[in-house]
């Protein structure tokens, strides 16, 4: 039976039983969003394959997929399945402030995604416009902000910079403790 594994927001892998061999034919794979079957796309793979990765798909979309074995020996009926991609994960979906002291606090965020190359942490006292910027590698999901004034409220904005160039931001407020 044709089925999908490793489903993400933009891809999935199709698996099927071995029906053909390199010598006896090839497979045509057709797929389209079920609400727009006119946008059908097709791929051909050799008879030696029993799986294929489909990518560049739309998030939260159900695809109608048909596997058509093109055999020069036997007739195999097409196999069909429906696969729904996941919702697109965005980062940061949450920003947490912890370990607050008079001159520093810890900022963390989630989730960390492979599609993010880096984070920008912008922080400044409220009210005011003297914000400072920290750059954080996309593999990390936290940083410590230091050299702050005690007993002050800060606005912290975490911006994820995606490989595609898109940016997503989320803000939180943080208060430093009173000094000695």
Automatic annotation (TrEMBL):
InterPro entries: ECM_Regulatory_Proteins, FN3_dom, FN3_sf, Ig-like_fold. SMART domains: FN3 (SM00060). Residues 1-89, 91-179 form the Fibronectin type-III domain. Its main location: secreted. It is found in: Secreted, Extracellular space. Keywords: Glycoprotein, Repeat, Secreted, Signal. Signal peptide: none annotated. One of its GO terms (cellular component) is extracellular region. The keyword Ribonucleoprotein does not apply. The keyword Phosphoprotein does not apply. PROSITE patterns: FN3. CDD domains: FN3. It comes from the Eukaryota. This is von Willebrand factor A domain-containing protein 1. It comes from Cariama cristata (Red-legged seriema). The lineage of its organism: Eukaryota, Metazoa, Chordata, Craniata, Vertebrata.
